């Protein structure tokens, strides 16, 4: 069902792959793209469980907006391994204004489709979603 505000539908695969990441941990990250012609959000790239943070960031286009989900593993101060699911709204300064507006207007509805997101980040350049940002927001 499309959202009246943005007109964006969410492809079933988006929810399916997110559930796999959340429950089975079969993906380290998922990058989602809005297909403007079809007016829907689709899965653009899946990261393997062994992929690194660098693999994730290198798959975000430098001049286009994307949504992404990243399964971040970390150790607590008590040395307990934990993970947090981050939702990243990637909107680089160099992206087209129309694209930024579409991604911004569709974000909340899309995020609601992905049940289990724990932390949200908004990033316009890579420094705003560095590993240090993830670590500080994970606890």
Protein architecture, described:
The chain is of the alpha/beta class and 139 residues long. Helix content is 32%, strand content 29%. It has 4 helices and 6 strands. It has a 6-stranded mixed β-sheet with strand order 1-3-2-4-5-6. The longest helix has 17 residues, at 97-113. The termini are far apart.
Shape: globular
How far apart the termini lie comes to 35 Å
| Overall pLDDT level | 93
Instruction: Supply Rg.
Output: 15 Å
What's the number of extended β-strand segments?
A: 6
> What structural category do the secondary elements indicate?
alpha/beta
Strand adjacency order, main sheet: 1-3-2-4-5-6
H-E order = EHEEHEEHEH
List low-confidence stretches: 1-5
Q: How would a crystallographer describe the biggest sheet?
A: 6 strands, mixed
Helix content: 25-40%
**Treating each run of at least 4 consecutive H or I residues as one helix, how many helices?**
4
What is the percentage of strand-forming residues? Answer: 25-35%
Question: How are the SSEs ordered, and which strands pair?
Answer:
Elements: E1 9-10, H1 12-24, E2 29-35, E3 40-46, H2 53-58, E4 66-75, E5 81-90, H3 97-113, E6 119-123, H4 131-138
Parallel strand pairs: 1-3, 5-6
Antiparallel strand pairs: 2-3, 2-4, 4-5
């Amino acid at each position: 069902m499309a959202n009246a505000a943005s007109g964006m539908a969410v492809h079933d695969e988006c929810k399916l792959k997110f559930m796999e990441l959340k429950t089975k941990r079969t993906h380290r990250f998922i990058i989602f793209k809005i297909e403007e012609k079809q007016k829907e959000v689709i899965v653009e790239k899946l990261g393997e469980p062994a992929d690194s943070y660098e693999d994730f960031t290198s798959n975000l286009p430098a001049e286009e907006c994307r949504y992404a989900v990243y399964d971040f593993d970390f150790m607590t101060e008590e040395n307990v391994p934990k993970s947090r699911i981050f939702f990243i709204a990637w909107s680089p300064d160099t992206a087209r204004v129309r694209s930024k507006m579409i991604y911004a207007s569709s974000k909340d509805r899309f995020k609601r489709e992905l049940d289990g997101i724990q932390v949200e980040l908004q990033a316009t350049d890579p420094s705003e979603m560095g590993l240090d940002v993830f670590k500080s927001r994970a606890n």
